[in-house]
From TrEMBL:
This is FAD-binding protein. InterPro entries: FAD-dep_OxRdtase_2_FAD-bd, FAD-oxidoreductase_2, FAD/NAD-bd_sf, Succ_DH/fumarate_Rdtase_cat_sf, TAT_signal. The lineage of its organism: Bacteria, Bacillati, Actinomycetota, Coriobacteriia, Eggerthellales. Coiled coil: none annotated. Residues 68-556 form the FAD-dependent oxidoreductase 2 FAD-binding domain. Keywords: FAD, Flavoprotein, Oxidoreductase. SUPFAM superfamilies: FAD/NAD(P)-binding domain, Succinate dehydrogenase/fumarate reductase flavoprotein, catalytic domain. It comes from the Bacteria. Its cofactor is FAD. Gene3D superfamilies: FAD/NAD(P)-binding domain, Succinate dehydrogenase/fumarate reductase flavoprotein, catalytic domain.
Amino acid sequence: MDRRTFIKGGLIAGAVAAAGTAVGCAPSASGAGEPVAEEALATTGNTWYGEPAPLDSFDLVATEECELLICGCGAGGIVATATAAEEGVKAITIDKGASHGSIKTFVGVVGSRIDEQYGVTPDKMAVMNELTRYTNGFCNPRVARTWIEEGGATFDWISDTVADRGVNPFFETDTGSGFHGVWPVYPIQHGFVCDYTEEQMAEAQAKAGDTGDPAAMMHALPGVSDYLMDFAVEKGADVRYQTELVQLIQEDDGTVTGAIVKDADGYKQINASKGVILATGGYEADPDLLAELNPQSACIGGVSMAQMGNDGSGIRAGIWAGGVKDAIPTLMTFSRAAIAPDAPLGAPYEGNSCWMGDQPFLRVNMRGERVCCESAPYDYPLFVATYQPENKIATIWDANYQEHIRAFHTLGCSRIVPSESTLLDGRPNGEGLTFEANDMMIAQGMEMGIIQQADTLEELAEKLLMPADALKATVERYNELCEAGEDADFGKEAKDLLPLTTPPFTGAYFGGHVLCTIDGLKIDEHGRVLDAAQDPIPGLYAVGNCSGSLYAGSYPELLIGNANGRTVTFARHAVKHIKDNL
């Protein structure tokens, strides 16, 4: 657990549409006269999303009315709920979990008030077009433009809403040289630092116990998401946990007017006169579905960081309402899952987290061969690995690794050396894992037999199950390139060409953190779900990882925090659009 996370409060197809019927995710429970999800899925051949159940097959215990139904209470649902409460929209928010989720640590936006205070203003169009370039054009730039134009104001609104709770916004301006290898880096990373009273700290300590685990303490402390939900409830928000979206309801013309939901009392119909927002996340928590829809990424997973319950049910509901999912699957994944030399990648995941995988050290395959330019976004080596034996490549470092990491100067959540950027009042923002936390991860990995260490390269190669002569020759060649200051083999950035000369030598194979899928339902610039003809489905919106249209193949991680930034931006935009237009 990094120092940053500890001290911050937590900013963590086809379509089937039957007129006049309920459409969406079939329920998981069975009973007399009730549909069964497994049976529905079994009858659909090779389509993963199955078929909807007839509306009259549900034994309803109640019917309720609202203006807006918000399905899901992660980052998008939290912001949508708070916005609806502020705007006076009568909304019901449901989540199948026992509590709300969180707004993640980084919020990537452009044009906030704090940008102006720091005097650093990135070019909005350059950022937008870099995101488009990252997808090779397989995106909707109009969707990107909404994030670009409104993200800063959304961040300002969050800042103002929680300011009286001791929450301080920050803007991480450090982008190093402005490039990571050949990839440009723009200063869009924002976040929050929370001040806590002695009473709050004491309460959190009591909840966390005496384990000394920073993660337990972090979870026990309130964060921005908690404060936003407090704000919403104070303004009358109706939030219901352990309540599952079952199916959407549509009129004969296709307009979405509510949903069937299920809670402890049974099935209920919630009519929503202004529409429904899907904020249910992606499908990464279902490893079988991930393997089916995105086999190229599923085979490199080593540690699951998925939010439980993100099983694609909201995307499924949107497809049954006539929506279309992004054609190109995209998993947000970082190279932080150290895995034993003889362990396979993919589910069930057998790795252990270690931030060394994000650093641009020498990378070799199981034959001891160097495989790529290491000065690249830190998911790229994972994709390179799919062209190597067993989809695995190893990272190699020596006793000088701390000195090398300082020279690498990686950014965002890969950063180990604490940032020197500060809040406007002079306090550090806490960005950076720290060497203490990183060394703890290395030690843990070694104790588990996942990370290997030796006094010679030959011995290290033996432990990594690769040919000793090949690894030794690779390191010798690499050191020659470092000495020359030019990587004639793969074009690694000169500042990252640092030789491996001092024992002990350490190495580990790295797979990916399985974070979240971001290839959801196609949307327009207002967050409206689109059908196969690219027309909006009346009354249906999607935000966050349940939505698509912005990513393809790989997450643009050097636009730091952009996924979270677009989530909160579209959640607020969608509610305002619904209020003003429906």
